[in-house]
Structure formats: C-alpha cells, structure tokens
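Whiteboard transcription, Tuesday session. T.W. wrote the structure tokens on the left side:
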C-alpha cells in the first residue's frame, strides 16, 4: 500500500467541481444460473422471493420449463447487479469486507444468503455473491490514507474516482473525511479484500475445516514486527516465529478427538511494536470423524480415578510447554518396524470393563514383543521417562513448538529426561506394563496439549513446506 500526499489538492478541488454527485445505481436484480436439479419454487424459497413474481420477472409461460444453464433475474433485489456465484468465505474475511469486495451492501449480501447470524461467517462457509458480468467484480485495498490526507476529494482525485462513489463503496457517505491509516477500497482491484488491518498480510488455516483428533495449523503473516497471541475456543494458541520468514507467526494446535462438532471461535490479537493492538474473531467448523468402537478388559486399578487423575494431570504438565525451537524436519518415522497393520487405532471409542463408553484411545497401538525396539521418530529432547500406573514404563519426547510424542507400556527405558535424541535412535523396548491386555507399543502424538492422529504426522509435514519453519 502507499500513502496519499497533499500534492495536487488544488487540482483535486478543481476536478471535484466537474464531478457529478451520487447517482442511484440501476439494476433489475442479480442473475441466477439454473443448476442441475433446480426447480422454480426451490429457487424462490432459496432467495426468499415469490414464485409467481420470479416467473413474471423472467416471462416464464411454463414455470416448470427451466433447464440447467438458464439465466433467471431475481425480483426484489433491485440495485444489485451481476451474476450470482458461490464462493467459500476465507480466513480473515467478514460480511463487511466481502460486501466491499463485491460492491454490494452488507445487508443485501446477508439477505441474498438468508443469514441468521451475519456477524459469524465461518471459514469455508459457502456464500452467494454477485459478480459483475464481464468483470471480476472485486475491490482491493490499494491505498492507505495518511494522517494529513483525510479529505475525500484529495483521495478521489489521486485515484481518479468520483469522490461520492469512493465514499459509497467505503461506507463513508454523508461525510467528507476518511479515517487515517485505513485501507481505501478501489473498484477493479485484482486481489481480495479482507477484514484485517494493513499490518497483517494474511491469515491462513490448514485445514480450513479440521476434523476431530487432527492437527490445525494457523499462520499469520505480518507486514511489520509485532506479537501475535490467540485462542481456539478455550484453548490458548502458542504462536512462534518461522525460521523461513521472520514476519510469519505459526501456531500448531490439536483438535480433541471428543471435541463437539460445529463452530468454534478462532481469536487472535496482533500487538505492533508501537500503536494499538488489533483483535479479530472468526468461527471455524470442526467436522465429526467416524472412529471405531471397542470393548476392552483391563485391571481395575488402572481405571481407578485415584490413579488415573493424578497421572493424567502429571502428563498434562509434561506436554504443556511450547519451546520456540522446532527440532523436526519432514514427516515423522514410525517408532517400530511393525506399521503395516495396527491392533488398535487412534480415536477409537472405548468401553472398559463394561463400565460405559467413557473413554477413547489417545494413541496408535503397534504390534511387538519384548524383543521389539522402539526408535525416536524425529529429533527432540526427552521430557519424561519413568514408571506410571496406567501408562507403565513411559517416555515423552519434546520436539519443539508444543509437539510431543509418547511411548507407553515399555519393558525397558533407555533414555532419561534431558537427553537429546535423534531420528532412529533406540529409546526403549516394547512391553506390557500398565493398562494393557498384552505386549504392544502405545504411541501418542501431542500438539498444543492435545493428543492427535499419529498417522497424520507420518504421512505429511507440519507445517507444510509453504508455511516454512
């Protein structure tokens, strides 16, 4: 972006004398392209218009004679032009920014989509927007107003626009100034607008709609130095600086396997080195996963809350810190040589000793016996090594950025807290200690204090190569 100077203000004033005042945009309504399976009454219901009015507006003698590809003009939306398309709401966008982007009033955009709560557009939500026929129809924030350049005439003249039109698309009709440091949206821009300030170049989520038990990557790219903090629901996010880009802030966060499907707020705050903090909230959708169910019989003492609660609390403290140094590169390796099939998968809902479906499997079980070696899947520092009631002989490794791996039920432990380990290093032997039904390795991956699907971490790199790190 660039700031506007006061140079040429006299020219701006002279030009303004010949510029016409605001003129009401004329349009008979937006155009809807009929899709496969559409009916006229279905289209009318979708957009909240009367089916007879829809037929009359399009001179349909036979309302049943509509075919895919036919263009229908929607009555009742006079003032809105263009062809209707469906786009996903991107991270960092809200109703106002999308209205600016497509040159339509926010209230009209909400009406087109029959939005129940216009203030809560979630990432990936399909949204119907009017796209100008023959053009992109989008606007882009290309200019920034300086402290001394707040006159609408100055801005309009520099941009070569009618000042009343400039005010209209920026929501400033009725006043002759524009707020300093705000982006000015110009018609015909090539890129998308968003609701973020100029200090934030982009906000991205991978994936945009995470499933239960998977890993979410949140990346904020800045245009100037500053601090980023945030939360996903009630869970704080640990943002770290990417080694590949000093202005990139990345947070990895696990989605609990028992998380309630539906919308949860992603909130973050950017605090610049100087100036006021900026906060932004946008919902994301958590998708339900189809995990298996299994009955398991185990020793009663391994289900006793007197044993399980303090042990769970102890491990929660172990995996809580998020060190700023990322120690791994690429996908994780499997910790044993037996990974073609698995005796039990991550996320399985469990009924222990017929006491009800109150548990889930927080790791991935791998076959093995007391002669099976366990190897570190990636570089890290041992955060815990010792004997526990439920987990048996257990090791937890810190890989940085709040990412940990755990190895339960071992027969032997070959490392201790504080040891640095490398990929493939021998760290222990498979066993049957703790809450088990036989020898095996229970392998966990923790991200942001939450167990996640280990198979995700063996099949891809976190964060992706595009995110850096």
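and on the right, the sequence the group agreed on:
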């Amino acid at each position: 972006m660039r700031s506007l100077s006061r140079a040429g203000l006299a020219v701006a004033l002279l030009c303004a004398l010949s510029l016409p005042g605001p003129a009401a945009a004329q349009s008979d309504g937006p155009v809807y392209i009929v899709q496969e399976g559409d009916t006229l009454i279905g289209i009318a219901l979708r957009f909240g218009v009367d089916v007879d009015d829809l037929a009359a507006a399009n001179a349909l003698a036979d309302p049943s004679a509509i075919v895919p590809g036919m263009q229908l003009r929607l009555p009742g939306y006079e003032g809105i032009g263009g062809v209707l398309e469906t786009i996903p709401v991107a991270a960092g966008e809200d109703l106002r920014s999308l209205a600016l982007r497509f040159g339509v009033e926010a209230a009209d955009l909400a009406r087109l989509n029959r939005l129940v709560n216009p203030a809560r557009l979630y990432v990936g939500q399909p949204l119907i927007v009017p796209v100008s026929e023959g053009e992109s129809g989008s606007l882009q924030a290309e200019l920034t107003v300086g402290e001394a350049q707040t006159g609408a005439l100055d801005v309009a003249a520099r941009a070569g626009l009618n000042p009343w039109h400039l005010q209209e698309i920026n929501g400033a009709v009725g006043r002759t100034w524009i707020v300093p440091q705000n982006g000015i949206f110009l018609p015909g821009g090539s890129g998308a607008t968003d609701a973020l300030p100029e200090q934030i170049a982009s906000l991205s989520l991978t994936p945009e709609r995470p499933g239960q038990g998977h890993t979410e990557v949140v990346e904020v790219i800045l245009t100037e130095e500053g601090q980023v903090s945030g939360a996903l629901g009630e869970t704080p996010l640990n943002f770290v600086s990417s080694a590949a880009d000093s202005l990139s802030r990345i947070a990895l966060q696990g989605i609990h396997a028992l998380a309630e499907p539906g919308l949860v707020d992603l909130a973050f705050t950017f605090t610049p080195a100087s100036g006021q903090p900026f906060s932004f909230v946008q919902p994301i959708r958590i998708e339900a996963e189809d995990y298996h169910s299994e009955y398991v019989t185990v020793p009663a003492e391994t289900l006793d809350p007197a044993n399980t609660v303090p042990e769970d609390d102890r491990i929660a403290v172990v995996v809580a810190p998020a060190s700023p140094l990322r120690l791994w590169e690429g996908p994780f390796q499997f910790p044993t040589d037996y990974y073609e099939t698995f005796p039990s998968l991550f996320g399985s809902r469990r009924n222990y000793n017929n006491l009800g479906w109150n548990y889930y499997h927080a790791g991935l079980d791998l076959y093995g016996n007391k002669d099976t070696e366990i190897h570190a899947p990636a570089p890290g520092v041992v955060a815990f090594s010792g004997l526990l009631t439920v987990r048996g002989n257990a090791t937890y490794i810190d890989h940085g950025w709040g990412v940990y791996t755990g190895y339960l039920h071992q027969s032997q432990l070959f490392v201790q807290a504080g040891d640095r380990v490398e990929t493939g290093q021998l760290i222990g032997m498979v066993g049957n200690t703790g809450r088990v039904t036989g020898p095996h390795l229970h392998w966990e991956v923790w991200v942001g204090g939450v167990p996640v699907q280990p198979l995700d971490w063996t099949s891809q790199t976190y964060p992706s190569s595009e995110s850096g790190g």
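Someone added at the bottom: The first helix runs from residue 9 to 17.
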